[in-house]
């Protein structure tokens, strides 16, 4: 098995706002001395996790990032016959394994939650519920130093935790290093945020009244060809999945497909930004990974930004090989502009040597 799978995506986003900043406008970055549009790695990873591809192909192997595992435990214990007070008491004890309890929320809302989000695998959720049930039946709770060991795991069948990692501040022994690194996607060319001035008309306003709108507003948007770089450490992914080769293969294939077909859903009802990759280069090898973002340090231009971007990307890959030696042992690509390759071929390539 080759250790690394590197993925390079070029995707056209039409006028849209899939990933907003704190003021509701498209995220941006300065790169190569000019303004670019940007989509954060967090937004891209969540889009993949929530995609139909992940939900279908990794069903039963996806974790949940939540502060509300305590509420799940309370509901489970109440179904098992516990009263509210007893269920809450046990839930607080078990939930402590996932992080510090939020006393303020409990005081104001009467619910059991952690202060931080915890990324919880299906196995860990089941173990927490089983432990709570046993405590309800009279079994003693493990000592504080052993509580985490009774509920948390360093490796199991949660594919998204294995890929994207997790940090548990109170139990660093159960942190998981991410086997997949996802860069922020940026436009390959200069791009700016534009403003859409819009109005909403009152359908019941009479003709005799003024012609003004019922509401006036503005919204930011942008468009362009985005470059996304992703590196998969498949050896670490296999370790994170507790040595399950079949699940490692399924997770790798789901990731390749999801990143080509799923996009962040911000303002989708306004812009219908269902974007799919127009070019993907996949590379396998044991060599030190490298991004090809330097291909766009000088922004591309011209009448066909996608074609120019593909040319710049492939040229940089060749230059890297010439300077450093081959940066991959095998490559596969899908090119919509040239009509070459398919997503199915890319998916098969990504897992061909995983057994």
Short description:
The protein has 355 residues and is α+β, with helices and mostly antiparallel strands.
- Could you state the oligomeric state of the chains shown? single chain
Looking at the structure, what is the overall shape?
flat
**Alpha carbon gyration radius:** 24 Å
- Strand count: 11
Uncertain spans, ≥5 residues at pLDDT below 50? none
CA(first)-CA(last) distance: 8 Å
Helices and strands, in order, run as EEEHHEHHHEHHHEEEEHHHEHEH
* Helix proportion: 25-40%
Structure description:
There is one protein chain. A hairpin with a 2-residue loop joins strand 2 and strand 3. The protein is of the alpha+beta class and 355 residues long. It folds into two domains: 4-59 and 178-192 and 222-350, no CATH class; 65-157. Strands 1, 2, 3, 6, 7, 8, 9, 10 and 11 form a nine-stranded antiparallel β-sheet that branches. A two-stranded antiparallel sheet has the order 4-5. The model has no long low-confidence stretch (mean pLDDT 95). Helix 3 (69-79) crosses helix 4, helix 4 crosses helix 6 and helix 10 packs antiparallel against helix 13 (343-350). The chain has 13 helices and eleven strands. The termini are close together. The protein has helices spanning 41-50, 52-57, 69-79, 84-95, 103-109, 122-136, 144-151, 159-164, 234-240, 245-261, 268-271, 305-324, 343-350, and strands at residues 4-16, 28-31, 34-39, 64-66, 118-120, 180-182, 185-187, 194-200, 215-233, 277-285, 330-335.
């Amino acid at each position: 098995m080759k250790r690394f799978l590197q993925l390079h995506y070029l995707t056209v986003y039409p006028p849209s706002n899939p990933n907003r900043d704190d003021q509701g406008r498209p995220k941006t970055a300065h790169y190569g001395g000019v303004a670019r549009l940007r989509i954060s790695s967090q937004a891209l990873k969540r889009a993949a996790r929530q995609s139909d591809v992940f939900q279908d192909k990794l069903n039963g192997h996806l974790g949940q990032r939540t502060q509300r595992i305590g509420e799940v435990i309370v509901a489970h214990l109440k179904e098992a016959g516990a009263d509210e007070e007893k269920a809450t008491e046990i839930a607080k004890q078990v939930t402590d394994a996932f992080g510090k309890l939020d006393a303020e929320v409990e005081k104001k809302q009467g619910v059991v939650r952690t202060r931080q989000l915890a990324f919880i695998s299906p196995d860990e959720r089941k173990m927490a519920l089983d432990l709570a049930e046993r405590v309800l039946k009279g079994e003693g709770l493990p000592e504080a130093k052993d509580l985490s060991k009774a509920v948390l795991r360093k490796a199991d069948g949660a594919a998204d935790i294995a890929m994207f990692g997790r940090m548990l501040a109170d139990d660093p022994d159960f942190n998981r290093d991410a086997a997949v690194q996802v860069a922020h996607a940026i436009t390959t060319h200069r791009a700016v945020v534009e403003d859409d001035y819009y109005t909403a008309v009152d359908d019941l306003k009479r003709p005799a009244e003024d012609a003004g709108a019922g509401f006036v507003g503005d919204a930011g948007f942008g468009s362009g060809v985005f470059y996304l770089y992703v590196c998969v450490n498949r050896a670490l992914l296999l370790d994170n999945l507790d040595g399950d080769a079949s699940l490692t293969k399924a997770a790798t294939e789901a990731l390749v497909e999801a990143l080509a077909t799923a996009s962040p859903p911000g303002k989708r009802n306004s812009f219908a930004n269902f974007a799919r990759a127009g070019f993907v280069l996949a590379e396998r090898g044991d060599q030190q990974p490298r991004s090809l973002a330097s291909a766009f340090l000088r922004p591309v231009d011209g009448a066909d930004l996608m074609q120019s971007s593909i040319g710049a990307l492939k040229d940089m890959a060749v230059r890297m090989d010439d300077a450093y030696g081959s940066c991959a042992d095998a490559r596969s690509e899908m090119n919509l502009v040239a009509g070459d390759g398919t997503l199915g071929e890319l998916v098969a390539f990504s897992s061909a040597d995983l057994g």
